[in-house]
Queue: 2 jobs
Job 1
Amino acid sequence: MCGITGCVGREQTTDDLLAGLRNLEYRGYDSAGLAVQNGEGVAVFKRSGEVSNLCERVRGTHLTGAAGIGHTRWSTHGPPTDANAHPHTDCQNQIAVVHNGIIENHHELRTELRERGHDIESDTDTEVVPHLVAEFLPEATSTEDAFRSAIARLDGSYAIAMLVEGEDAIYAARDGSPLVLGIDEGAHFLASDVPAFLEFTDRVIYLEDGDVAKLTTDEIEITDVDGNSVERSVQTVDWVPEDAKKGEYDHFMHKEIHEQPTALRQAIRGRVDPDTGEVTLEDFPEGSFESIDTVQFVACGTSYHAGLYAAEVLTERGMRTTVHRASEFVVNPPPADDGTLVVGITQSGETADTLAALDDAIERGIRTLAVTNVVGSTAARTCDDALFIRAGPEIGVAATKTFSSQIATLLCLIRALVRDTMDSADHDAELFRALHALPNKVEHVLETSRAQQVAHRYQTSEAHFFIGRHTAQAVALEAALKLKEISYEHAEGFPAGELKHGPLALVTPETPIFAIATGRNDEKLRSNVEEARARKAPVVAVAAADSPVSTVADDHLTIPSTHPDLAGVLANVQLQLLSYQVASLLDRPIDKPRNLAKSVTVE
Ligand code: M6R
């Protein structure tokens, strides 16, 4: 949700900023802009639309300079116009600022600044920042001092980067929105997320809330907002530059769907013993969860569906388990006590709704655990513990490989919870041996899928309905989300038994039903399928070849047989491919669906 880039000490500052913005475009693509210290002042270029529009604007300008900042925007305040694009500047165009987040007191600041003679042109909350800095600068002992004074006036959430005329330096501050610094020989980078500069360096410093930083070619200084020096450790990320490139694929989504065997292998590496099915979770030795009797999953979107999936499995093993949409968890927090574990599931670790829910639990003294893909993310740092899904960077706005990796990781967590809290001798060996074999089965699905043919047949349907029971109801919801998100077609997911309680009224020969069978409750699912067939709806079985559901279907997206708790993952891969193929046939911008962004850092 808005991407920030910055670099100092590079020769090709403009090219590097544009490359960084292209790598961050998944965070927003309503408008883009950059500012470069070009020796004569701060040059600012911005354009509504995608980063490619900005590239056009900048082409041929021969911008040089040792320091620069860039921004790709997902609109919160004001429409995606050139004027509202970042960077924003002060009245003299000497201070340029890019921002991710929301400045909640911007109305009040805007009024105050206008009364003091500032001309504020855009609708954005961000524009008050350069004017505030300009207001403090004449009296300040240094630019840092003025920057910190301005930052101290802001309420809300922000990651901010600033450039000031005549200084080869970037000033940055973070509170509530992510900001990471990159360290290279003779150059420093800054970004909302590591892929922005991954091709240059894997050595990073994650800024924390309240940090203010100054980056020059030679140095990084970090202080708190009062100017006290702060130490932050340098970490090495284990992602490689190729992870953040499309390679031979047309879209990141397609690439990431195909990365699932690897992602799954990474998720279970060192955690699942292929022979015994024993699970060992680093950082969670036996007894880690012995005080836990209730688990509350909180998450949004696809991660929420992973929570629903995991909750089915954990409930079945006897644990009191609930699943909450994070945005609702904060509105009406469920009762919790010392025996409760709140598990925040978030790929990015930066989703504002999920972070707010986790903060709520932390404030109430409840134990929290982040299940996330991003080491150093806010969720990983604020929770009592973190468990990483190890999927590698996911760039496509549609979450794909991270869903599979979340399920694999959550199953391992479930095993540790059951181990520590139940008197059961059964250690689910069969499930975990099957989990170890799952990557090969995903490979088989990827090699043999008929999703393209099925997509071709049903792409012009009035609506697409997905049904399933147990873990497959979570997959039904996820499949519908994926299809609507990237194809803009109408899709809904239901627990299969619910179809007859209302949605059946929508079923016609123009509404295919995708029935997702796990090998458990398949007979009941078949009855639900028959109810739809009686209304002449075409049925696609997303099922093993020998499932009773397959015998009553018009079309098939076949999955290899596996443990029932894992069949949903294989079915989901088929349905990811289906969504991809439908969106492709409809010529949709698959990696950048309209109105959406990858990381939603506003509530
Ligand atoms: O980073 P998170 O897992 O917290 O993101 C949560 C949702 O915004 C995300 O899963 C969203 O629903 C996906 N882009 C859907 O494909």
Job 2
Amino acid sequence: MTMNNSTSNRRIRIFDTTLRDGEQAPGASLYPEEKIRIARQLARMGVDTIEPGFPISSPGDFQAVQHISRELQGIEICGFARAVREDIDAAVQATQDAAFRRIHMFLSSSDIHLDFQLRKSRQQVVEMARSMVAYAKRFVDRVEFSPMDATRTGDEFLFEVLEAVIAEGATILNIPDTVGYALPEEYGAMFRRVRQSVRGGDTVEYSAHCHNDLGLAVANSLAAIAAGVTHVEVTVNGVGERAGNCSLEELVMAIETRKATMGVETGIVTGEVYNTSKMVSRIMGFPIAYNKPIVGRNAFQHEAGIHQDGLLKNRSTYEIMDPDKLGIPRSMIILGKHSGRHALKHRIGQFGVQLNAEELESVYTRFKEKADELKVVTDDQLMGLVGATVDGPSEPFTLTHVQAVSSSDRSRMASVAVRDNRSGIERVYSGTGEGPIEAIVNGLKQAVPMEVEFVDLELHSLAMGAKATGEAEVTIAVNGETFKNAGMDQDVLVAVAKAYMSACNQAARRFHTDSSVAVPGEPEASKHAAARESEQMRARV
Ligand code: KIV
Ligand code: ZN
């Protein structure tokens, strides 16, 4: 790679196959309505092509591809097919109403697949590829051909197949690393050889499709880009068969962060990356690993004292990307046993409390004991420690009681008690919902004089066994700004209530909410937001 100072970067087209290859991940299957919701978000995020499914595989997939083709007219839609007429017919029909479309046809090319799976000779395979590309070309201009298991095929036969499909009019060659076997140098070199040696190789577009069995899918895709490839097939959160596919967010942010060096760019709206990741994780029921690059919970959090100190002085000391630009609610400093006095003082200062040196020392000593015991010290716990040192409670609202009642019908009830620390008044509120969490949140909403939108909830168990502590992380939005906070308790419902209250406290501090306007009963202004959120919560709770 060379340093590029020009402003005309080569445009890399992002082909999203979350709804086809991603959905092939065990346990990830999606209903058509879910595919449609995700496809809308993919379009909002600016992907160039969506592969929404495998139309021949089920009526639901056909319907989803057809609906998405009709609705998303600004984007290319791809119909997936084996190299057989029935598949091609279904893909052609399902994408009929798309404004822009392509057919993506695949056929195995490695001897392992030919011998053990297809039980066909090389000659038969070349003939199938040739005749089916010719067939697809009767209906569609843009035909993508994928020789499956290409990286274990060997040049001689790979070139023969590719020459045959180019001769019949294939316009895009997608050369997949189906089993995640290639190394980056090998994968890039393969594209160079194909372009140079295959007859017609300089007349078509190239696409990379990598699986992550060795954790190399992103590296291999970047190597393909360096070798001149212009389309990359990716999935959100890297979901897909086995260890998954090349992760959209990792590839896009590698390009975005290093575009000056690579000389390439994508059309992705990076501010939508986090939302999309969350949406796919929630709808597929696939949690995101804490340490997943870009979108994992720890991706922008810092615990080591020296890192926290650096960040407080300048973000770029330990961060190469700005989470704000990715739409990621920032809670960059995690207070734990590695945190230093500087970070502690800063966080306490965010609550409007200034400690002198002696007070800080006293809080710091007790903070360290707490951190040894709990690993992570939440804002609530920290302010509890500060409360013993500084006069008066510093949080606008304190949750004093939570009770949720289960029942066999679909309606749950909860009662919560909240003290408004500025007026000193404690009130009890009740809420209902389809699940206990919705009921608790609907109760708590009445206690806080702000229009609070419930954005996201993550639940984790912090240890194994029946005595495990549950941790809830709640993200809310107030006045277009997001706030995220955590709560812990052996009762997971109480953990959610604590996390929600802490996030509301953060927002209240940010906007200096006047507690005197708090009234019992659901605030009128928040009713429409509540309707929107209850749908989100039901999906999770
Ligand atoms: O991994 C693969 O080979 C595929 C193709 C069929 C493109 O998903
Ligand atoms: Zn694949």
